[in-house]
Amino acid sequence: MDTEAQPTERDRSSRPAAPEETSDPGGPEGRSRFALGQWVADWVPGGRITLTLLLCLLFLVLLSTFVLQPFQIPSGSMERGLRIGDRVLVNKLAYRFGGRPQRGDVVVFDGSGYFGDADYIKRVVGVGGDHVVCCDTEGRIQVNGRSVDESAFLYPGDEASGVDFDLVVPEGTLLVLGDHRSASSDTRDHLGSPGGGMIPVDAVIGRADWILWPSSHWTRLERPDAYARVPGPDGGHG
């Protein structure tokens, strides 16, 4: 009697094992970047530590060039708020992307061809189109017909100006004064010079936003409210 042969299941364990798959999350591109970084680290004396220090230095240079820059106060022209030797942090992006200096801002600017071959720090008192007069019957500066109370930052005992003036600030320029008026060389000292002592907006390096050093003098430099209330040259909001 014929019997049908029953197929037998082959032993699973006897099957050849499939090769194990390995993952390479980086891929060729990742390996290339790693190899390049390793090559640079091997090429630089000191290896990875030196490379890291160089990258940090490059970052600081770019930061100082385009974003923030420390500036040391060289004279007493901005006392009482800024003293000789103070270090302020200058925001170099404050007037980029459409921003413009405003009355009351403390700015650092390149004085070459205007004040001298150096960088200066002063307070903006008038912007393009402003009519600035000194002084009113109470000895205060007037901007667009409004008297400005500068007592919050003016050096104690100083008057608003020892020089009388009646000026209209040309468009694209700034009228700048030091807070220590009797010890400051500013717009008033260059009224007869080309440009009338006004500083082009393009010469402004940035706005001084913070006093960083000494630590006991650490503070943010705010725009005084007195200037915020000054109307614009056309009588509208300033």
H/E topology pattern: HHEEEEEEEEEEEEH
- Assigned CATH architecture of the largest domain: Ribbon
| Helix count, DSSP H or I runs of 4 or more residues | 3
Q: Give me the secondary-structure category.
A: alpha+beta
Radius of gyration: 33 Å
* Dominant shape: globular
Mean pLDDT: 81
- Major beta sheet summary: 8 strands, antiparallel
How would you describe this protein?
Strands 1, 2, 3, 4, 9, 10, 11 and 12 form an eight-stranded antiparallel beta sheet that branches. Helix 1 (27-43) crosses helix 2. The chain is α+β, with helices and mostly antiparallel strands. The model is unreliable at 1-26, 28-34 and 59-64 (pLDDT under 50). The longest helix is centred in the first third of the chain and has 20 residues, at 47-66. The protein has helices spanning 27-43, 47-66, 225-228; strands at 68-72, 87-91, 106-110, 119-126, 131-134, 142-143, 146-147, 165-168, 173-177, 199-200, 204-213, 219-220.
Lay out the secondary structure.
Layout: H1 27-43, H2 47-66, E1 68-72, E2 87-91, E3 106-110, E4 119-126, E5 131-134, E6 142-143, E7 146-147, E8 165-168, E9 173-177, E10 199-200, E11 204-213, E12 219-220, H3 225-228
Antiparallel strand pairs: 1-2, 2-11, 3-4, 3-11, 4-9, 5-6, 5-8, 6-7, 9-10, 11-12
Features:
238 residues; alpha+beta; Umud Fragment, subunit A; 2 domains; 8-stranded antiparallel sheet; 4-stranded antiparallel sheet; 3 helices; 12 strands; disordered N terminus
